[in-house]
UniProtKB/TrEMBL annotation:
The chain crosses the membrane at residues 7-26, 91-117, 129-148, 154-171, 178-194, 200-217, 229-250, 300-317, 324-344, 372-389, 401-420. It comes from the Bacteria. This is Membrane protein 6-pyruvoyl-tetrahydropterin synthase-related domain-containing protein. Keywords: Membrane, Transmembrane, Transmembrane helix. Residues 97-399 form the Membrane protein 6-pyruvoyl-tetrahydropterin synthase-related domain. The keyword Membrane applies. InterPro entries: Membrane_prot_PTPS-rel_domain. Pfam families: PTPS_related.
């Protein structure tokens, strides 16, 4: 088979597998959503829809006040993926943001797999089949499938292997096109910044780590490579800086900017490294307790057979410095992913880990520690692909080939992903869908619609309703990352909690109507004035009666019922 046909075959296989993983969502784009996405799919679809609106209205794509009225949202300080959402604007306008979201995930899985296949096949792997296996591991690893439920920014990673490929080409002594490659490198890094900065940062840490480890084993080889690459890479960095200067200024200095986001979440549970992923053939046949933060953060879940295969590969390749460097990097990145303290099967051991120090480093303190292990996956794939390459290309006994093929099957078949499940979206309240809201919002000087409970990261359906009605009104609260109001610039998920929002949230959770004071009623009026509210609406929801009585008491007036939604005109 020619190299070109092998490339085409790899791209085709990866695309078909991506469609298979997401085919449930493709079949029900408008009526269903990915079940394990939580509120994240709603947030992402809002980002894609707002970006398309910004493009068509020639608005500032780095900021929007359509949620979190009146303060708004810094889109660059969130995961808006403008490097993807802007070029996919025609898709969003023609088919809706759900189609864009699903397309992004599908292309993400396929292009990530192909990117690593391309890198492996052009560098250390001679066999296209072995490189294809390596790409398959990278693009469809358990962590990738987990993030495919909700996080396009950690699925669309196909640019990263091409960045590494260009770095290697620039450092190559035989390369006569360093300037051209440096220009392309600068463009790709700038694009990746606009696709996702956190994956780029984790990737950079992993590349730097392997470079240092390789230098330990081959100092005489690595030093000339660094010297050859220094000036071209510096030029690429300058080009990147010019291209992303304005977006990054908005991110760190524009409206609603923040300094860092401390997730205050534990790292990977040690057990998660050896368990099989829940969203796999093995997980479907033999379900076990999930020890991850949530179904979208199952970043490890390699299974014991795969880990043993990696160890065996490292032993077989122990005389190759790149293999040793890759294996040591896997250990270090796996340790970093465990966070600041060791947790074993849900039990805190009290043992402090190196993550305690990583958590103090600027930029790294905003990275979710569990995601460091994602950077170990390409190194794992490299080791397995290198041994497979040796089996396929070097003279070997048939018995050895059979044993290795069997080992691959035992390690990889249980990890094969199952199609991601979906659930019904629910309908948009008729008060909004039928445009009745227009009777309550001043079109000449529009304020905002306050939904009860006030939208937050746990209850973000109001963003979907806003998209369904054409993004023609603003809402209070929402789901995004913004400043917390702390003097050190720490961020938080959702709006800064106002007293009325917290009071309504408590009533919605408990179903208990609170006894209100005159101060709380005055505070409610002040909060409505802050939100620039035109109307308060309570759609059908859990504990709706308790919430209605609470708002009636807060506002001193009785709600108007419209098709199951209670409405208070507060203009």
């Amino acid at each position: 088979m020619t190299a070109r046909r092998a490339d085409l075959l790899a791209a085709t296989v990866y695309t078909l597998l991506s469609v298979l993983v997401l085919h449930n969502q493709w079949q029900h784009l408008q009526s269903q959503y990915l079940r394990f996405s939580g509120q994240d799919q709603t947030m992402w679809e809002w980002f894609f829809a707002v970006t398309a609106r910004s493009v068509t209205h020639l608005d500032n794509p780095f900021f929007s006040d359509l949620q979190n009225a009146p303060d708004g949202v810094n889109m660059m300080a969130n995961t808006a993926m403008l490097g993807l959402s802007v070029p996919l604007t025609p898709i969003t306008l023609a088919f809706g943001p759900a189609a864009t979201f699903t397309l992004a995930l599908t292309l993400g899985l396929a292009t990530t797999a192909y990117g690593w296949y391309f890198l492996f096949s052009r560098t250390v792997i001679r066999s296209r089949a072995a490189a294809g296996l390596g790409g398959l591991l990278c693009g469809f690893a358990p962590g990738m499938i987990s993030h495919a439920n909700a996080h396009p920014n950690f699925v669309v990673l196909g640019v990263l292997p091409f960045i590494l490929y260009l770095l290697l080409r620039i450092a190559d002594a035989e390369n006569t096109r360093r300037r051209r490659h440096a220009v392309v490198l600068g463009l790709l890094v700038a694009w990746q910044v606009m696709l996702g900065e956190e994956p780029l940062l984790v990737f950079a840490v992993a590349v730097a780590l392997i470079t240092v480890l390789y230098w330990v084993f081959r100092p005489r080889e690595i030093v000339p490579m660094v010297r050859r690459a220094a000036l071209p890479v510096l030029g690429a960095a300058l080009l990147t800086a010019v291209l992303v200067a304005v977006p990054l200024w908005w991110q760190f200095r524009g409206r609603q900017h923040y300094s860092y986001l401390d997730h205050n979440l534990p790292g990977n549970d040690l057990v998660s490294l050896v368990r099989f992923p829940p969203q796999s053939l093995w997980g479907a046949a033999f379900p076990m307790d999930d020890v991850a933060l949530n179904p979208t953060e199952q970043n490890a879940y390699f299974g014991i057979p795969l880990l043993l295969l990696v160890v065996v590969s490292a032993v077989v390749l122990r005389r190759r410095p790149i293999a040793v460097a890759a294996f040591v990097s896997i250990l270090i990145l796996g340790l970093a992913s465990l966070g600041v303290a060791l947790v074993v099967n849900g039990t805190e051991t009290g043992i402090t880990l190196p993550g305690e120090y990583l958590d103090r480093i600027p930029l790294l303190q905003s990275v979710l520690e569990t995601r460091f292990v994602l950077a170990a996956v390409p190194a794992m794939a490299l080791l397995i692909a290198m041994v497979t390459d040796r089996v396929l290309t070097a003279p070997a006994s048939r018995r050895g080939a059979v044993v290795w093929t069997g080992a691959l099957a035992v390690a990889l078949v249980p990890l094969a992903p199952t199609p991601l499940p979906t659930a019904d979206r629910g309908e948009t309240p008729s008060f909004l869908a039928d445009d009745t809201w227009r009777e309550y919002v001043d079109t000449d000087d529009p304020g905002s619609i306050v939904t009860v409970p006030v939208p937050n990261p746990g209850t973000a359906a109001a963003l979907r309703w806003q998209v369904d009605t054409g993004l023609e009104y603003r809402i209070a609260g929402g789901y995004f990352v913004g400043p917390s109001g702390q003097p050190d610039g720490e961020a938080k998920y959702g709006a800064i909690d106002r007293p009325t929002a917290k009071l309504l949230g408590t009533a919605g959770r408990t179903g208990i109507v609170p006894t209100l004071s005159d101060d709380q009623r005055r505070t409610a009026r002040a909060d409505l004035e802050f939100w620039d509210a035109d109307v308060v609406m309570l759609p059908p929801t859990e504990n709706q009666d308790a919430l209605r009585d609470t708002v009636d008491d807060l506002l001193g007036r009785t709600a108007t019922e419209i098709d199951g939604t209670y409405v208070w005109d507060v203009r």
